[in-house]
Amino acid sequence: xxxxxxxxxxxxxxxxxxxxxxxxxxxxxxxxxxxxxxxxxxxxxxxxxxxxxxxxxxxxxxxxxxxxxxxxxxxxxxxxxxxxxxxxxxxxxxxxxxxxxxxxxxxxxxxxxxxxxxxxxxxxxxxxxxxxxxxxxxxxxxxxxxxxxxxxxxxxxxxxxxxxxxxxxxxxxxxxxxxxxxxxxxxxxxxxxxxxxxxxxxxxxxxxxxxxxxxxxxxxxxxxxxxxxxxxxxxxxxxxxxxxxxxxxxxxxxxxxxxxxxxxxxxxxxxxxxxxxxxxxxxxxxxxxxxxxxxxxxxxxxxxxxxxxxxxxxxxxxxxxxxxxxxxxxxxxxxxxxxxxxxxxxxxxxxxxxxxxxxxxxxxxxxxxxxxxxxxxxxxxxxxxxxxxxxxxxxxxxxxxxxxxxxxxxxxxxxxxxxxxxxxxxxxxxxxxxxxxxxxxxxxxxxxxxxxxxxxxxx
Length: 459
Ligand code: MN
Description:
With 459 residues, this protein is of the alpha+beta class.
């Protein structure tokens, strides 16, 4: 346990010598404990070193939605917490939008506000904190709340940074030419649909639509998608954003990312295959995207940054996508998991089974900062709460695939589950769960919670 009054900035990580030291401070000290006992459990996703933001409502309550911070198996209700004494003079203005339930307004305050509040929350929730007596009644059990979307998502952009995914999928459609020549120069993306981004737990209705004409047929098919798939992604949520016409430079880009969540960008592969040329993804993508409830801030992720590297022989990025800081620590080292529970498994009392594991650092060809710099280089404005999907984060081996399209080799090779059931694509009643965490020697493990959705039959 960290002694009270430990000087700020004392904690140093040998592995991160040479990285910007402002990013690692006493809030990341692995020895720091909380007076919330469940936050000290070794396997919790939400120790005092994490402190992610989410939007919740007490189950069965008519009270307005609140912003809270996850701590162990509890949520600190920031409306109630803001009314308590002990915050000093600088913190109460930061708590005003949060107490009002408006995470977007806090996101708009930018990185300095985010860091100042993190310091205050870390102090307030640390073991021995003088605020314990005042804040203990502001806790509510996570088991007693419903989680919504963390913020208003004005715009959603979906990128395609998973080079192993892009190559594997490209091979299915273009065996002789899997990766198009722009891929290693341009972070590929398209503008998605924000209205159908839903919080974890929301059921996913199987979409209907057109499919390519069957062999010998002269008209397209129409009906429920037969190739419903998941996409294992990260969601990057934008902080303050930029004015129209004013690009964000790569060295300012990380500060513009408020936080990271798990993101399942559901895909109807058969609809997508028929519709996607020449303008790109449309109804095969826009029926739903699920996001996990807790936004893990870039500050919480500071101990888990990793170098941005390119394989030998690959081009280095153009100057506007390149910087010393991005090369040293632009990537995120996040371990990802895909789990599946079929209806038959659920009825038999079997838990979700692991179907894939991946690593964001291995999978991503571009860093979050590069996505922000690229998105805004033409002057496009990002606004607080905007969402950037990473693209499917498949690792280099087939077992690390972030989609069933890859795991089943285009639907040709079913995967077999522990109870003997087989899957090429998702069936009605299947529950898909994404999970993620960060760990490394010398740092406290932090996690992202989970992002779940169950497939409902088509209308
Ligand atoms: Mn996607």
